[in-house]
Amino acid sequence: MSINIFHILLLIISFISINSSVEADIVKSLPGYSYKGRLYSGYLSVSSTKQFHYMFNLAHEDWENKPLVLWLNGGPGCSSLDGWSAENGPMQMDSKGNFIMNEYSWHRAANMLYIESPGNVGFSYIDSKLDYELEINDDIAAEDNFKALQDFFKKYPTFKGRDFYISGESYAGIYIPMLAYRIILYNKNAQSYAKINLKGILVGNGVADWNYDTTNAMIDFAFSHHLTSYEHRLQFNQYCIMEYNQTKCDEILVKLDSWLENINVYDYLQRCEFPTNEYGDRDYFSSYYLRSPWAFHNLKQKQKKLKEKLEKLKLKNLKPNNILIEPQEKKLSAPPCVDDSAMTEYFNREDVKTALHVNANKAWELCNMDINERYVIQDKGSIWAYPTIIKEGVRVLIFNGDTDMAVPFNGNQAWIHNLGLEIEKPWQQWRAFDDMENVAGYYIKYKGLTFCTVKGTGHMVPQWKPKEAFYMF
Question: What's the CA gap between 78 and 91, in Å, rounded?
């Protein structure tokens, strides 16, 4: 038997193994979704009670030789279907719920896997009411993601030895390095045939070191972009960092919140469409608002004042169109300035759930705030994992949209500097391959890590700068 014939037979066997093992997960058609490439959707078993939903696009061409890439969104508690449907999937959903072909989909370069994690996020679910089964923190998330990945390789054995990369954004800055570290530990004791061929990680606008990321970096970002005063920055440094005073620090953060109230925290250059109620007032009960360490610190107070106003209007019988909408204490499901209504409506359609082979009784949300509130964010972050990841030869790319205030580039830049890595290529411009006339951003290459910025975009780089994100990828 010649080598060529043998190779062809292996490919046929590999293809059969995919189809026979996960035939039930093949998405034969999806409402409103015209891309005809191979798509799978189903569940990965984490434990007897935990099932993580996944979606998997084979590479557009030559999938047998393309690497495998996992994408994770953050939160914690937000769905990776945001990445699939709005960022780097084969099609992007617009504000009206229509899918548009994505010329710069990452599946043109790789086989793309999306996992909704941790448990109960999106279509994933935990079939238990026991408190210990519902506990969630960074360590548990890493272990659960690892077990889900292991189950993926059982379903798709042909990808077991494939070059593998982990990518994502935001709180995935915790998920990704910790999963990579878990894989490194696993590989040390695994047989050669069972090892996961981890080649690299890509983290976009991700948190890693709480001493530098999010609020701390946002203060400097706001000051350098003239969104806050010099005096305010000095007060923050004094009472929130050097000589911590909780009362004064909280006052400073509330003041900052008021100054940034009309600013899109995920891209300060983009407009933020704040929702209003039937009276024309800012609707602070809308799911647009996400309680977080860096945005809307006094949201509950604003909700209280709005509720009091609505009660007064009710007493005066002032009703819009003779109908008064009672204020409700709503669980917040979407980040600020993000309109998730079309996406939420789409993924909750019965025909869509049927096509995706998911639990029909599970209501899909972009961000599960029960998980967000239950999730224990650990102080150690993920910075501790990077020395081991780099030492093991795993390639690292940290990329940042440079107009993001939620996880600003300057915070990432600071903790990367503190790693003390040798510089191999100094700070310089980079350009997208088919747009060599314009600067796409800047990068610096250290030994084992590259830090890259994408010019003029914010938190969701693949969504807002798809071309630049694709060529960077």
Answer: 20
